[in-house]
């Protein structure tokens, strides 16, 4: 994981946004400056196995990019001495061809970790983070600067972006905030922009089609949040604020959306599942 030096230490504020009585019950959740300032703490205390799952996603993408680079180089035979002498140049050129998008990148944690892993593997890639919250992008940019990471962060609506051809897309806890009627179109844009063999990693909060099991999953999740220091008032207030803002689908529904967007069922796998959270990887073949 990333380590801070004394010169680049980044303070992390505690999430107590919903502990204040002055917060209106009618106020809806939004990714403003207040949320952005405590978002890293919110992620770690609200998403089960957040750091483990982030590391899992980074590991799969690093494997994918490394294997892609090696395969790409193997397909370029070196016919003469001058080509052999410039092998390092060819390798560097191919390494920079891989483009990776993180859609809904928030404060940039995934791309920061990925940049570190790829750099350690001797692989370069174009890392692009997109989020429609200017506060999130500002925080992500500051963190990248502090770590000396070469990442481009862009404030934009993910539904409106014209994506360039990319090797990987990441959309962790993003689809659930997109209006249901726009989700297939969003995933179709990703599918069309993916290179052949490219992958999409998708993480979501999920529901169960079984009402009883869904209620039990929610109750278990609330107990998880309570163990992480959230009060019943905070849990209830945030749930109300997220109503009709975060609209989760079941695992089966998310896989169906991916298939509708163009992915084949045999090219979709579940990487991680914990009660009502899950991560899916899909490859375009």
Automatic annotation (TrEMBL):
InterPro entries per record: CmoA (IPR005271), Methyltransf_25 (IPR041698), SAM-dependent_MTases_sf (IPR029063)
Domain Methyltransferase: 100-198
EC assignment: 2.1.3.-
A Pfam match: Methyltransf_25
SUPFAM superfamilies documented for this protein: S-adenosyl-L-methionine-dependent methyltransferases
Residues annotated as binding S-adenosyl-L-methionine: 50, 104-106, 131-132, 172, 239
EC main group: transferase
UniProt catalytic activity: prephenate + S-adenosyl-L-methionine = carboxy-S-adenosyl-L-methionine + 3-phenylpyruvate + H2O
Keywords, alphabetical: Methyltransferase, S-adenosyl-L-methionine, Transferase
One example of a Gene Ontology biological process annotation: tRNA wobble uridine modification
UniProt GO MF annotations: carboxyl- or carbamoyltransferase activity; methyltransferase activity; S-adenosyl-L-methionine binding
Keyword Transferase: yes
Function of the protein: Catalyzes the conversion of S-adenosyl-L-methionine (SAM) to carboxy-S-adenosyl-L-methionine (Cx-SAM).
Protein family membership: Belongs to the class I-like SAM-binding methyltransferase superfamily. Cx-SAM synthase family.
Protein name: Carboxy-S-adenosyl-L-methionine synthase
Gene symbol of the encoding locus: cmoA
């Amino acid at each position: 994981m990333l380590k801070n030096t004394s010169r680049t230490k980044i303070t992390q504020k505690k999430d107590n946004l919903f502990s204040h009585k002055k917060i209106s019950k009618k106020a809806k959740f939004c990714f403003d400056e207040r949320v952005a300032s405590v978002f890293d703490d919110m992620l770690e205390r609200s998403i089960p196995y957040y750091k483990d799952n982030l590391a899992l996603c980074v590991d799969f993408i690093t494997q994918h990019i490394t294997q892609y680079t090696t395969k790409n180089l193997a397909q370029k035979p070196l016919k003469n001495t001058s080509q052999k002498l410039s092998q390092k140049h060819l390798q560097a050129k191919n390494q920079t061809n891989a483009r990776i998008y993180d859609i809904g990148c928030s404060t940039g944690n995934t791309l920061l970790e990925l940049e570190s892993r790829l750099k350690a593997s001797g692989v370069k890639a174009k890392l692009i983070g997109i989020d429609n919250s200017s506060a999130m992008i500002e925080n992500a940019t500051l963190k990248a600067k502090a770590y000396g990471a070469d990442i481009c962060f862009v404030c934009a609506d993910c539904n409106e972006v014209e994506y360039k051809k990319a090797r990987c897309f990441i959309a962790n806890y993003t689809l659930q905030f997109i209006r249901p009627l726009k989700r297939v179109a969003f995933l179709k844009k990703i599918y069309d922009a993916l290179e052949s063999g490219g992958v999409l990693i998708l993480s979501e909060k999920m529901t169960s089609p079984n009402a009883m099991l869904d209620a039990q999953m929610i109750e278990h999740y609330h107990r998880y949040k309570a163990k992480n220091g959230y009060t019943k008032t905070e849990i209830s207030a945030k749930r109300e604020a997220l109503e009709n803002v975060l609209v989760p689908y079941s695992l089966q529904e998310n896989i169906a959306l991916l298939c509708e967007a163009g992915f084949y069922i045999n090219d979709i796998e579940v990487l991680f599942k914990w009660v009502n959270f899950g991560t899916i990887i899909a490859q375009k073949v």
